[in-house]
Amino acid sequence: MKFTDKFPLIGRHPVFAQSMLRVKDPERSRIFYEKQLGMQFLTRFDFPNLSFSLYFYACAEQNIPKGHLSQAETAKWLWNVQFPTLELTHNWGTEKDPDFQYHNGNEDPKGFVHLAFIVDDVNKAVEELESQGVPIIQRPIWSQIGKFAYISDPDGYWIQLISAEPGSREFYSKIPGVGNFQNRTILAETRLRIKDPQASRHFYEKGLGMTCVRYLEIPSSRLTLYYYAYTNSSIDRQNINSCENRTERWPIPRIVLQHLWESETDLFLSYHNGNTEPTGFGHIGLTVDDIYSACCRIQKAGYKIIRKPGPFQDVGEISFLSDPDGYWIELIQRNSFRTAKSAL
Questions:
Q1: 13 labelled ligand-binding
Q2: At residue 249, does pLDDT exceed 70?
């Protein structure tokens, strides 16, 4: 197969599968994401030899496999779902340290901005969450983005709540993985700060095969937002061609790249990826058909491979790439495990 503009470097049919955040106390985070934001707990992976656990949540009703499945069998199911998940990483023992905290990306050094959820009524959502003790960062306001508010999760990460317009539920009911969704939130986007939009757009479009479904200039803040998503379905393509410029109707999940004007000319500016001290945001994850071939092409194109493709514990085969700003992109082997050795 010849990989041209039609086929991205990571192969055909990638899926934006997850966004990862590190959390101090998984029980505290469970209450927030499951009980207060209405997400569904999917599964948990434990790695005793490495002293950490992974917790997966989603804004979708899904038939979770029943019975006593092994961790490997559960992972095989998880890497084949078609909706986005939130991956929370807990390093054992952090919950016992009263002084321990993670970096939210919105204080120096800056990088990660927020996760965004679509809600039916942002005013009502903020009122309910505030009554439950959730910190409110920004009360509902109108802007070019729409009506939105900001709240804080237990680790201080910013969560944007975007108010949906009438009819949005009907639209999203047609999207795979969201069809039977009955909860009150939809995980819509992960936003990252970028320095050079030309370099980032080339990576996300040519390398990862995403489509820029919208860009929005905000002169008052000297910002441009680039909205990226996979547009594999006819629903997505029809929406891009016909829908008015309303954020909550664009394909989901989205990666939003936030560019501060003229930052690319600042020789001393760099953004923090969250994986060096101070740690916090971890990565975004994509599932692909063949991580070995994908990484070989990615490396030949001049992009950085952080972790060569190969097995990780008993949950599958993974690799890590770096985008132009140093953010980590995890590639996860979809379907059954491969036995071939790394092509790198």
A1: no
A2: no
Confirm or deny that 114 is annotated as ligand binding.
Answer: yes
Rounded Cα–Cα distance for residues 138 and 152 (Å): 10
Residue 109, preceding peptide bond in cis (omega within 30° of 0): yes
Residue with tokens 């009554």: 131
Q: Please confirm whether the linkage preceding 253 is cis (ω < 30° from 0).
A: yes
Q: What is the pTM of this model?
A: 0.91
Q: Which domains does the chain have, with CATH numbers?
A: 15-100+280-333 (3.10.180.10), 112-265 (3.10.180.10)
CA distances from 40 to 235, 251, 342 (A): 25, 21, 35
Does an H or E element contain 26, and which?
helix 26-30
- 324-338 in b/e burial notation, b at 16+ Cβ within 10 A? bbbbbbbbbbbeeeb
Task: Look at residue 296 in the predicted model and tell me its pLDDT.
Answer: 95
Give the three-class secondary structure for 5.
coil
Whether 299 and 59 have beta carbons less than 8 Å apart is answered as no
- Cβ(60)–Cβ(41) under 8 Å? no
Cis peptide before 135 (omega within 30 of 0): no
At 31-48, the pLDDT tens digits run 999 999 999 999 999 999
Q: Tell me whether residue 87 is annotated as binding.
A: yes
pLDDT band at 166 (very low <50, low <70, confident <90, very high): low
Q: Write the DSSP assignment of 91-160 as a string of letters.
A: ETTGGG-TT-----SSSSSP-EEEEEEEES-HHHHHHHHHHTTPPEEEEEEEETTEEEEEEE-TT--EEE
Instruction: Of 117, 223, 121, give the one whose Cα is nearest residue 178.
Output: 117
